[in-house]
């Protein structure tokens, strides 16, 4: 089996989103009990990048809350990317900043961003059930823009939000059209503040989703991201046999993850190796 790729998340700005996505605690509408701040100091972002690299991460994602990029956010992410690349030039830097225009993405690329993460989240048909303040088409167009400027596209979605099997097929078919380099599979993690109430997927069903996604998609990296610890619990090792070859280490945006050392020990106990670089 190919080596396992580790990616870490940096929550650059938190909890200031005005969108109404029912699955997301970052929305101010849901009043979730999370940390809220505008921007981290760039020195702190650089320090977190160094820490992630020391834990074996080959990717580092700069995430901001809110609908998408504007001039201020673009300028900040460019500065942060430049400073991280100065000390970690080999790091695969990922930006995850919502909807983005071609010109904005070009600026990020010039500053050192290698990949752009924008998730479809679910099918076109189901999307209005989980968000009404922007459209699924807005998300799809951003992914097209990422491909157009030559950044590595990272795009996936969330399972277990009440979607049907037909929705899952439609969602995967849309990803096929976009041909992302990496597809994150997330599993809905409930929070009492969220309006979305859905039955948590069983471990067996979640594993079948991973197997199916691996058989359908040609992405280099199939990543199990948010909800891994919550859904798989003591069966997390089975995600690799199912076809995943990438995970997020450390904490997520507003939920806690495993300690990186624990994840690495799990991977090595299976006779698998941790990847040393993100892309050849």
How would you describe the overall organization of this protein?
The model has no long low-confidence stretch (mean pLDDT 92). The chain has a 9-stranded parallel sheet with strand order 5-4-3-2-1-9-8-7-6. It is an alpha/beta fold and 280 residues long. 45% of the residues are buried. The chain is built from 9 helices and 9 strands.
The overall strand count is 9
- Note the beta-strand portion: 15-25%
**Fraction of residues in H or I helices:** 25-40%
Q: Could you give the distance between the termini?
A: 17 Å
- Mean pLDDT score: 92
The helix-and-strand class reads alpha/beta
Strand order of the largest sheet: 5-4-3-2-1-9-8-7-6
Summarize the helix and strand pattern as letters.
Answer: EHEHEHEHEEHEHEHHEH
Please describe the biggest sheet, giving its number of strands, its sense, and whether it closes into a barrel.
9 strands, parallel
Low-confidence stretches: none
- What's the multimeric state? single chain
Question: Which geometry do the CA atoms define?
Answer: globular
How many alpha or pi helices?
9
CA-based gyration radius: 17 Å
Which SSEs are present, and which pair or pack?
Elements: E1 5-13, H1 42-54, E2 59-64, H2 71-87, E3 92-96, H3 102-111, E4 115-117, H4 136-149, E5 152-154, E6 157-159, H5 165-178, E7 182-187, H6 203-216, E8 221-224, H7 228-232, H8 238-242, E9 246-249, H9 260-269
Parallel strand pairs: 1-2, 1-9, 2-3, 3-4, 4-5, 6-7, 7-8, 8-9
Helix pairs in contact: 1-2, 2-3, 3-4
């Amino acid at each position: 089996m190919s080596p396992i790729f580790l990616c870490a998340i940096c929550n650059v700005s938190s909890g200031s989103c005005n969108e109404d996505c029912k699955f997301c605690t970052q929305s101010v509408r849901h009043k979730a009990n999370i940390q809220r701040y505008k921007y981290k100091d760039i020195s702190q972002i650089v320090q977190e990048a160094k820490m992630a690299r020391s834990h074996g991460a080959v990717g580092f994602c700069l995430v901001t809350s809110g609908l998408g990029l504007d001039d201020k956010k673009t300028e900040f992410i460019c500065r942060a990317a430049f400073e991280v690349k100065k000390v970690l030039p080999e790091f695969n830097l990922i930006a995850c900043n919502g909807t983005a225009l071609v010109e904005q993405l070009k600026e990020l690329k010039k500053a050192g961003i290698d990949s752009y993460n924008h998730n479809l989240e679910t099918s076109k048909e189901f999307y209005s059930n989980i968000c009404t303040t922007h459209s699924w088409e807005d998300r799809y167009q951003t992914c097209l823009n990422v491909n157009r400027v030559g950044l590595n596209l990272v795009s996936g979605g969330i399972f277990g939000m009440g979607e049907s099997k037909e929705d899952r097929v439609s969602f995967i078919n849309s990803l096929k059209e976009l041909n992302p380099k990496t597809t994150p599979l997330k599993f809905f993690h409930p929070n009492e503040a969220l309006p979305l109430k859905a039955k948590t997927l069983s471990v067996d069903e979640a594993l079948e989703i991973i197997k199916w996604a691996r058989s359908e998609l040609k992405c280099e990296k199939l990543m199990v991201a948010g909800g891994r610890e919550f859904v798989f619990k003591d069966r997390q090792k089975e995600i690799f046999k199912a076809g995943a070859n990438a995970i997020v280490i450390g904490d997520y945006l507003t939920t806690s993850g495993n300690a990186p050392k624990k994840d690495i020990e799990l991977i090595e106990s299976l006779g698998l190796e941790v990847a040393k670089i993100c892309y050849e």
